[in-house]
C-alpha cells in the first residue's frame, strides 16, 4: 500500500516537473511573430441584424455606398465582389485602410529616398564645383598678385629710366651750353682783321 502511494506521489511530482519545463520560455524561440489583424463585419440583406447574413466583408475592403438608413444606423453598400447588402454605418469610413495605404506609403518612401539620394549626389557635385572654383580663385589671385608685382617692378624700371634719361638730357644740355660759352669767349679773344680800305686812305 505504501509503495502505491509513493508511486502516485512520484508520478504527480514528475508531471509537475514536466509541466514547469513546458511553460518555461526557451532562449532559442524566435520573437519575430505578430498577431494577425483579420477583422471583418457581416453583411445583411436588410438594415438590421435581424436580416439574413449574406457574408462577411474584410476590414479595408473598398466599397460603394448606395444609401443610408439613419433610423437603424445601417448603410447599404456594394463590395469588391459585386455583392449588395447592409452593414453598420460605424464600420464605413472615408479613410483608406492601412493595408491599402502601406503600398502607397512604401512607394512614397522609395521616391523620397531616391530624391534624397539624387539630392545628395547633386550636393556632392556642387561641393566639388565649389572646391574647384575656390582653387581657381586662389590660382587667379596668385597670378594677379604675380602680375601686380611685375607691373610694380616695370613701373619702377620705367621711372628709373625716365630719371636716367632726364639726367642724360640735362648733362648733354649743360655740355652744349658750356661749349657755346667757351666758343663765345674764344671768338671774343680772336684778333680782328684790319680793313684795307681804311689803310689806303
TrEMBL record:
Q: Which domain of life is it from?
A: Bacteria
Residue ranges annotated for the SH3b domain, each copy included: 30-96
Task: Write down the InterPro entries for this protein, in alphabetical order.
Answer: SH3-like_bac-type (IPR003646), SH3_dom_pro (IPR016476)
Q: Which N-terminal stretch is annotated as signal sequence?
A: 1-19
**Where is this chain's protein located in or outside the cell?**
Membrane
Presence of keyword Signal: yes
Topology with respect to the bilayer: Single-pass membrane protein
Please give the start and end residues of each transmembrane region. Answer: 169-190
Q: Name one GO cellular component term.
A: membrane
User: Under which name does UniProt file this protein?
Assistant: SH3b domain-containing protein
- Give the originating organism: Alteromonas australica
